[in-house]
Amino acid sequence: MPDTQPSRENNAPEQPETAAQRRARRAQFLRDLMEARALRDRVQPRRARAARMRQQMRMRTFRW
Hints:
Layout lengths: L18 H25 L1 H17 L3
């Protein structure tokens, strides 16, 4: 699995992550997560259908 952490040079001082960097890193993570879920759904269609049915049942029985 490729390293998703941003590369940091050893001689660079440790600086706190900016909000924009955090958002970009989070957006990349969410894209990867959705891609992995889509792949799993294509590979295991029966399990994906069962998961969709369970999600629909949860939404139907959820009370606001």
